[in-house]
Design brief:
This protein has 176 residues and is α+β, with helices and mostly antiparallel strands. Helix content is 26%, strand content 31%.
Amino acid sequence: MRRYFSALVLALLTATAMAVPAQAHAELRSSNPASGAALDAPPPQIELTFSDVVSLPDGDAVTVTGPDGVKWPVTQAHAVDRTITAKVDTAAAKSGAHTLEWRAQSDDGDIISGKFTFTMNAPSAAPTSSVMMSAPVTNAPPSTTPSDPGGVPAWLWVVAGLIAVVGAILLVRRKS
C-alpha cells in the first residue's frame, strides 16, 4: 500500500510541475494619448497597443467623452495585430478632463475593456502634425480593467483527472 501511495504522490507532483498556466488575456500596454496626459491640442487619432493580438468587438471599440458629457465622433476604427487605431473628430474637444473608454476582443474571443482620463489644456479644432509627436505614449494605467473570464484553470482539471486515474488503478489492484 505504501508503494501505491508513493506512486500517487509522485504522479500528483509530476502533474503540477508540468501544468501550463492558463493563457492570459491581452492587456493594454500603451496608448496615445496616454493615461493622465495633459495635451495642448486634441489628438486627431487614438492608438491603443496591447500585449497580444486583438480585434474589434461588436459595438464601439473606442469612445471619448468630454468634461461636458459630450462624446467625440469616432470613425475609421480598425485593429491590426496588437494595435487598435481610430480617427476622432476633435471639434467636440473642450478644456478639462476627457475619458477614453476602450473595448477589444482577445485572440481567445473574450472581450476586455478599460478606461482612463487625459486632460485638454486648451481646445483646438486644427491639430498639427507635431501634436502626434508630442503626445506621450506610456504604459497602460492601473485603472485598466480587463474582464474576468472565470472558470476553472486547466491545470486543476489535469490534477483531478490524474487523481481519478490513480484512484481507479488502486481500486482495481485492491480487488485483484
